[in-house]
């Protein structure tokens, strides 16, 4: 009888052996982004969060461009042409540092650049994508409005014809990168349906006042976009799409990154909880030696690595051209919800220290409250799945 093969040792950092599913190139991307975040973000982000700012954002964008993290899953025009799994791994590592950094990359690549890459003219692509891929031009994505978030079809921003030009009027709200962007992709109603416009932010009538007094995503630039008679030439419109299919397909691409990113925040909190539980002593022993703490850690590990496995599965489907929007909703709904629960449980293990910025737990927890809402609330993703499961539309 042949001897049983020797099993590899149990790895607490990878209890399911998910790394076995990754290629050498995947691991290289992950390690590159992790090293950059450890050097350029982690040592400073608590201070940025406390101060409510993201200093040197343009410098950070250029550094992210240099490692190929901007528009990394797009091909050509200076983009890295990475796989969906590699892009997901990058999102996980960036959000393990902070959700605001991952949001910077997601909005740049999966929303603004993706819209231009998929729906733009060749002239628009050549003008903007190489600069955006390098981080020399930051982009933003204007869809959400002050009174219309989950119902973008009711947007009030309007673009009307004036001769051969377009004139845009309206407001967009909660726009990441808005105040520092060189270009905005703005969606507006027209006589012929919803259209996307590539708007240089130095166009007269365009302004982007920064939103202050946030208690979430504080290390991130969030703005309102104000469009007062913004006059654009005819070639500013994205020619490749009319209707909500355009912005919604961009959102689906960005939501995919969130599926991975949320697990990065969860991993950071879980690792902090494990380290704390094995060093913090109460009643003469580390609190990690008590059954209730071990139960919490076990449950956190199960949900964390299930979430990473789900993200990996969706990434392989995206790389195979088989990922449906409903499946992205599945991932976003599950992973963000579970990430928040992991952060909250980690906070209980740290006790009072859990609210201190000396540890990343409360920062991740508050950031995830925004991630839970943007690019589709819990309720909207539940209804997407409900319709897919029953065939009945409950949105109205």
UniProtKB/TrEMBL annotation:
Similarity annotation: Belongs to the acyl-CoA dehydrogenase family.
Residue ranges annotated for the Acyl-CoA dehydrogenase/oxidase N-terminal domain, each copy included: 25-136
Protein name as catalogued: Acyl-CoA dehydrogenase
UniProt xrefs under Pfam families: Acyl-CoA_dh_1, Acyl-CoA_dh_M, Acyl-CoA_dh_N
Segments forming domain Acyl-CoA oxidase/dehydrogenase middle: 140-230
Cofactor(s) the protein requires to work: FAD
Gene Ontology annotations of biological process type: fatty acid beta-oxidation using acyl-CoA dehydrogenase; fatty-acyl-CoA biosynthetic process
Gene3D superfamilies, A to Z: Acyl-CoA dehydrogenase/oxidase, N-terminal domain, Butyryl-CoA Dehydrogenase, subunit A, domain 2, Butyryl-CoA Dehydrogenase, subunit A, domain 3
One term of GO molecular function: flavin adenine dinucleotide binding
Entries under InterPro entries matching the protein: Acyl-CoA_Oxase/DH_mid-dom (IPR006091), Acyl-CoA_Oxase/DH_mid-dom_sf (IPR046373), AcylCo_DH-like_C (IPR036250), AcylCo_DH/oxidase_C (IPR009075), AcylCoA_DH/ox_N (IPR013786), AcylCoA_DH/ox_N_sf (IPR037069), AcylCoA_DH/oxidase_NM_dom_sf (IPR009100), Glutaryl-CoA_DH_mitochondrial (IPR052033)
Coiled coil ranges: none
Domain (Acyl-CoA dehydrogenase/oxidase C-terminal) ranges: 243-389
Keywords: FAD, Flavoprotein, Oxidoreductase, Transit peptide
